Amino acid sequence: MRDHYLTFADATDRLARAIVIVLMAVMCVVVLAGVFWRYVLNDALTWTEEAGRYLMIWMGFLGVAPALREGGHVAVDVLLNRLPGSSRRAVILFVRLLCVAFLATVVAAAFLLIPRISGQITPVLGVSTAWPYLAIPVGSLLTIIEMGALMIRDPDPPPQDIENEAAMAVRS
After folding, report:
1. How far is it, in rounded angstroms, from Cα 14 to Cα 20?
2. Of 52, 103, 131, 150, which alpha carbon lies 20 to 30 A from 121's?
3. Where are the alpha helices (DSSP H) in 40-129?
């Protein structure tokens, strides 16, 4: 069961990364087209700003889980690193479970919100506002999956010595 879950988490991670890459490429093209039409052709495209914004929203929410996997989120762990091993593991598990509970609440709230706003239409693109808001529960679900995989793979990550890492980076 554990191996199946980790395989599933790996697959969702690969999918999220691929989608984020595609969204980034599309957003770059859309924004560059908007700039080109506005400043070179003096004829602004009305839809590029709104499309770029919604693409960035999706990139942000879908990118949370891969960033979690890579340890890319900011963490204040000064007190955590001073705890003995068993207490440290307990605090890490508690914080991770708290994150899962928060994300599950976000998913539930989003699924209550989305039907209420689905009748609203975006001003320029003319699509339902549910589409940009759908990034919230999708990204949160991917993050819950990744948090579960993190709890299985790395229940007790080693303390990070940021000063030594920074000094090593400067020397390289």
Report:
1. 10
2. 103
3. 48-70, 85-117
